[in-house]
């Protein structure tokens, strides 16, 4: 799943990151990284605008 470098890269590019609807920033990045690392049931979705530019990355837990 996601790793710290990947999440840091998204933040450095100015992309909004959300995990289960919670905004991710530099303060809670380490905690969220551990959650995503330990639980492989999250799906990543890139969110784009009308021009096709990505402005956010959403991680949503997949429930059965």
SSE pattern, N- to C-terminal: HEEHEE
SS summary, helix count: 2
Net shape? globular
Counting DSSP E segments of at least 2 residues, the number of strands comes to 4
User: Helicity range of the residues?
Assistant: 25-40%
Q: Name the average pLDDT.
A: 88
From the alpha-carbon coordinates, what is the Rg to the nearest angstrom?
11 Å
Largest sheet at a glance?
A: 4 strands, mixed
User: How are the strands of the biggest sheet laid out side by side?
Assistant: 2-1-4-3
Distance between the termini: 18 Å
User: What fraction of residues sit in β-strands?
Assistant: 25-35%
Determine the structural class based on helices, strands and strand pairing.
Answer: alpha+beta
> What are the segments in which pLDDT stays under 50 over at least 5 consecutive residues?
none
Brief synopsis:
The chain has 64 residues and is α+β, with helices and mostly antiparallel strands.
């Amino acid at each position: 799943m996601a790793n710290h470098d990947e999440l840091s890269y998204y933040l450095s590019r100015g992309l909004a990151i959300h995990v289960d609807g919670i905004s991710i920033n530099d303060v809670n990045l380490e905690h969220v990284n551990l959650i995503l690392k330990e639980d492989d049931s999250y799906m990543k979705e890139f969110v784009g605008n009308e021009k096709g530019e990505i402005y956010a990355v959403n991680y949503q837990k997949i429930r059965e």
